[in-house]
User: Fold this.
Amino acid sequence: MKVLVINCGSSSLKYQLINPSTEEVFAIGLCDRIGIHGSKFEYEVPATDFELELEHDMPTHKEALELVLNTLTGEHGVIADINEVDAVGHRIVHGGEEFTTSVLLDEKVMAGIEANNDLAPLHNPANLLGVKTCMELIPGKPNVGVFDTAFHQTMPAKAFMYPLPYADYTELKVRKYGFHGTSHKFVAGLANDLLGNPANSKVIVCHLGNGASISAVKDGKSVDTSMGLTPLQGLMMGTRCGDIDPAAALFIKAKRDLTDKEIDARMNKKSGILGIFEKSSDCRDLEIAREGGDERAALAIDMMTYRIRAYIASYAAAMGGVDMICFTGGIGENSNLIRSKSLEGLEFMGVELDEAVNSVRKKGSVKLSTETSKVAIYKIQTNEELVIARDTLAIVK
Assistant:
């Protein structure tokens, strides 16, 4: 079975052609800067190490997807005909309360997704555009929606409710939803495998990248997560502030005479690492600057890892303990400094990091805890596309 996985952003389109049964990736790539000058197309065939990168005009997502399909079936293609694609799996950011699992996409379902556009105005419209384009260019093939929020819909009310007037929940659906669900689902599932699939397990997943979130997963189900109604809540991230006093935003808005859009942009695009460090939002730049004695870089790292550590401890308390702590995402998988500093001071929980192993960069799943540690610590390479492909296969069958 061949599943085309599509992750459609407002000006980008990530894609993979996968066999979810064997986990073979036939092709992978990216269409970047869609509708913007300097559009770029990337295509890679892992089996042959063939790579293609070129500038190509892509005014809309339709032209981008046409380029993807033509390349998949062209001179360096991996299929002879587009009909070899059995199904298309789509990443959908926000499913609200209605969509708690992956679902076959039709007009009724798409209308339901569109009703949640207010909850994810930057993502859901782009995701739906990708679905409609695929239905037009690959007619007759089933399309499946896999939601970032679905994995966290097992959270109990005490975790997902906000202490606001209850009508804000019943009438406006204001509550914690959580994101990065496909990544948390994949890593938590692999963690349970590594633990020997016990009947009861307590896993904390730290998905650390430019966007970052932590989840508490008990017996394979999410019981809490750091992101909320939007991806702004929770950890300090590349450009997002994470948890702050809500009144601080109102204070800044009034003092600087900002519009709603301007204060939203300030918290989402100008805060976090970028807000403190000011020179970059990239954690790699941050670490280099810290090594060079940059005090602002050191402060940003201390702030970021302090919050990660606090969330780990609070989720261990919420679950009554923890069996494994997992690090994933671009930063979680690659930064030994962030992993180390995030676990500092957690020795009272029985957490012991093997610094020698932690300092060596290896791919795949790597155990980072000492033999005497009461809590297993792992670095796990996430695979959100495989989760989407697996769910698509399950729905189609």
